Amino acid sequence: MSEALAVNAAELTKTFGSLTAVDQISIKVAEGEVYGLLGPNGAGKTTFLRMLLGLIRPDSGTLEVFGRSWDKHGIAVLDGVAGFIESPKFYPGLSGRRNLELLAGLDGGVAPGRIDEVLDIVDLTDRMRDKVGGYSFGMRQRLGVAASLVRDPKLLVLDEPANGLDPAGIRDMRALVKRLATSGLTVLLSSHDMGEVEQICDDVTIMRSGTVAYHGSIAALREQAPAQAHRISTTDDTAAEALVRACGLEATRTDDGLAVRGPQEDIDALIVDIVKAGMALRALSLDETPLEALFFMLTEPAPDARTPRPAAPVTSGAHR
Ligand SMILES: Nc1ncnc2c1ncn2[C@@H]1O[C@H](COP(=O)(O)OP(=O)(O)OP(=O)(O)O)[C@@H](O)[C@H]1O
């Protein structure tokens, strides 16, 4: 069974003083899948990845990468593994291509043409002779992916690769990870962005304060998500709220009107009823997506007693 797993972490725990950063986390990443490690800042994602890459040792639990463990196999655990934690570092005075040549040299060389190939994959061919010091942040992140690909890995570990990028950089990074995913590479991607993980990943572990809030497929997560929320503002929100409830829909008062959840056809009917009742519509917009709403429910404490959070963990699949 473990041969088919790229990563098999069981009950992994890491403490820093009195803080338990990762608390008995179990994660199985199948070979060839794109796996998301999702959670807000401080959830323990980077700590998990650092244990995976052997940068820190777990206090307890077991960890295997392609069936190899740090205890039994030492640095050989990283055979076929590449990636970076936080941001990759390069020599700013050297070109992107020269940086990759140096890294490849440290690894004992590389097949002819591989450096050009990976620069092409990350769309840096045109800029490969420019100094890295002149690269944008997004280009440096993509060069980091290229540096990982030079090793021709079977598992690529990416720690929030889109963090700090502008919208175009985020779009390019997501497209790159999707392209890599279709090539059969196993990708373990940490992120705090539900939308990113939804677009890119097959399976996800959602972390909250070092623990698992959800394990399972994105498809199963979608089924548990609440209905799409709409923001509605009218000339009389109190009367509109009464109408919402009369229609059997959920409503929450917000600073700028009402947040209403329900199937799209019910929302359409509600808008007609609001206008028929003599109220003018001042605003109608989509709120957070259903999956984003579920992510916040799973990872944040309830803001007040009117919006109870579901009991966690919500679990799908047989991981834990
Ligand atoms: N070396 C360390 N010493 C002390 N505390 C640490 C150390 N590394 C991480 N922590 C703490 O462990 C917790 C988890 O941090 P971690 O970086 O793993 O979270 P994260 O989910 O990756 O968040 P972010 O998105 O902010 O990087 C945080 O409270 C962090 O402050």
Explained architecture:
- The chain is built from 11 helices and 15 strands.
- The protein has 320 residues and is an alpha/beta fold.
- It folds into 2 domains: 2-223, P-loop containing nucleotide triphosphate hydrolases (Rossmann fold); 229-288, Alpha-Beta Plaits.
- It has a 7-stranded mixed beta sheet with strand order 6-7-8-3-9-10-15, with helices on both faces. It has a 4-stranded antiparallel beta sheet with strand order 2-1-4-5. It has a 4-stranded antiparallel beta sheet with strand order 12-13-11-14, covered by helices on one side.
- The longest helix is centred in the middle third of the chain and has 16 residues, at 167-182.
- Mean pLDDT is 87; it is low at 305-314.
- Adenosine-5'-triphosphate binds next to strand 2 and helix 1.
- GO terms for molecular function: ATP binding; ATP hydrolysis activity.
- This is ABC transporter ATP-binding protein.
- Residues 7-234 form the ABC transporter domain.
Any descriptors?
320 residues, alpha/beta, Rossmann fold, Alpha-Beta Plaits, 2 domains, 7-stranded mixed sheet, 4-stranded antiparallel sheet, 11 helices, 28% strand, binds adenosine-5'-triphosphate
